[in-house]
Structures are given as C-alpha cells and as structure tokens.
Amino acid sequence: MASARHGTDRTTGADPNVDGKAEAIAELMLEVAQCFFRIRALGQKTGLITSWGGGAFGFMRSLALLGPLTVPQIAQMRPTSRQRMQRLADELAAEGLVEFIDNPKHRRSKLVQLTRKGAARYDELNAQLMAIASTMGVALDEADIRKTAAIVRQLSDDVKVRSERLG
Amino acid sequence: MASARHGTDRTTGADPNVDGKAEAIAELMLEVAQCFFRIRALGQKTGLITSWGGGAFGFMRSLALLGPLTVPQIAQMRPTSRQRMQRLADELAAEGLVEFIDNPKHRRSKLVQLTRKGAARYDELNAQLMAIASTMGVALDEADIRKTAAIVRQLSDDVKVRSERLG
DNA sequence: CTAGAAACGACAACTAAGGTGTCATTCTAA
DNA sequence: TTAGAATGACACCTTAGTTGTCGTTTCTAG
C-alpha cells in the first residue's frame, strides 16, 4: 500500500523507529476508536448507557468520584459543552438523581450533588458494568490490563493537550 | 465510595482477583471511551475526519487495506448500517473518490474501489494522521504501544462477541 | 427449472445528540 | 466602581445515524 511509504524514507539514514512508533500510535488510535463503537453498541443493548459523551453515566461518575461540582466544572472535564452539561444536570435533577446545593464560592452557580437515589442508581449502573466486565478479557492478565489502561490514558492526555493547543 | 464494594465481598474467601480484574477492565473501557472523544475532537479540529463510525476515513481505509469490496461487505465490518454505508459510498462516488466496478460474483451489487484520486486522498489523510501521531506518546516505548493496541483489540473483540450474543 | 427466501439498491421519514447563539444576571479584579 | 469574564436559561439548527419500505435481483433448495 502506498500509504505505508509516507514519512521518513527508509532508504535514508533516518531512524526508522520514529516512523514505526508513529505508525503504532496511529494504529492504537484507530483501535481505540473501533473499540469505543463496540463498547457503545454493547452499552445500548444492555441499557447501561444511552450516550457516552454527554451521557449520564459519566456525569454521575464524576460526582461520585469527586464529590459536588458546579456544572461548568463538570463540563471542563468532559468532552462536551457547558450548555450540554447544564441540560443534563437539569434532566437528572428532574429525575431526582442529583440536587443543587448552595455554593459558598458562588451564589448563582450551585453545586451539583448526587442524591441518595442518584448514588444508588450510579452504584447499580456500576455493578452492571462490572458484571459485563467480569466476563471479558478472560485470556488477559490484570497487570497487563492496568498497564494498558495507563497507556491509553497517557495517549488520551497527549491528544487532549494537542487538541487544546489548536484552540 | 460505595460502588467499589460491589461484587464479591473481599471479607469472604472468594478470589479477590476476579473483582480486581473486572474493575481493571471496566476502567479500561471508560478510558477507551474518553480517549475516543478526545481523538474525535482532535480529528475535527485538524479536519482529518468528520465522523468515525460512518466516517469516510474508515471506509476508505477498508478499501485501501482490503481492496475492492461491496457495500454490504463494508457495512458488516464497520459499526454502522448497510444503508449508511450505501449513502456514504454514493457520496464518495459523487466526489470521485471511489468508483463502482463490475462484480463477477454479483451483477447488481457492484464492487467499490478507490479511484486514483481516492487513493491519493487516503494517503494524504493517512499522512496527516501519522504527522499527528508522531508528536504523541513521546514518553512511551513502541513495544508497549503495540502491546497496548493488541490488548485493546482483544477487548474490542470480546465486546463484539458479547454484543452479538445479545442479538 | 422453478418457487420461495434472502440480499441488494434506492429512497424517505424520523430520532437522537449535541453545537451554537443570545441575553440577563452574577461574580471578579483592576 | 466599573469593565470584563463566568454563569444559567432558553431557543434554534446542524449533523449523524437509524429505521422502514419498496421493487428488483440473486441465491438456494427442492
């Protein structure tokens, strides 16, 4: 394939590893993308999630892990817009899964917090996720999986940095 | 957090690795999802892609790697519907990036093939991807990256199998 | 060689997800 | 105190993708 010839010409004295590594990263990115779509499809079939980007699970997860946050704070750490998170927060509040509590730092921008019901729902979803996860990766070693997650996270951060640099 | 207590109770004699591994896989899945969104955001900013699921890049990549295929064949290996791929094929054909050639096995279902222009475009996009990839993962080792890609692929396959089992 | 089943192309809604824009209010910092 | 940034609220719109249908074509089994 012609595309394999792009980049440094291997007939020169340039380090071939530069290309090999770039290719490996590109492959990993494509693999991640494909994996995501399959995860999403599975999530939809199991009813675990409806969407991932502006999805409720990630939103609730942020609150469960980090405690009460303002809507803009949540939006900053999620791959979507402030308005989207605002709407999601309102929807979850309407379902009684989250509540707005006073923010000592800001009178208008309330803190969003999981209600008891919301925490229970999150635990339930998380348990479902665990149930699914426990049936997968049978051939894999836990240490390898953790290392994989760490590397994906690192790639993720790299992508984010480069993405933000483009403004 | 309460959610970390789901699954096997560690105070019993059950193997704690089962839970640890499931948790690791769940974490990996979430990491993959987040990474995907960041990759997509980067792709949009660079103009490299418009979408990934029914996107043109993956479509053309399939053709570049595997040679001429019918629309249903492409749809089977991509995370989207036959109709979507049909429409995409038509759009790409309108742009002169792919062409329909006679299929010896099937008179009506033509084979889709990259045109010279399409191949050039794909190479160009691939070069862009490589350019981006070459600036990332500086701290990572190529072997680790390849292993990571392999494990993600394995997870991806596991997810696919489980997803298909649910019909 | 046929009849029924499946695959295919084409087309048309329909939905979901999220982006974008705006405006009034509130906070922050010079 | 005042200019500028952050926030909540609301409305509109674009895009991606699904779903459904229909007529035709191809495959398969008897």
UniProtKB/TrEMBL annotation, chains A, B:
Xref: Pfam families: MarR_2
Residue ranges annotated for the HTH marR-type domain, each copy included: 41-145
Gene Ontology molecular function terms on file: DNA-binding transcription factor activity
Domain of life, per lineage: Bacteria
UniProt-listed SUPFAM superfamilies: Winged helix' DNA-binding domain
Entry protein name: Putative Transcriptional regulator
Species name: Mesorhizobium prunaredense
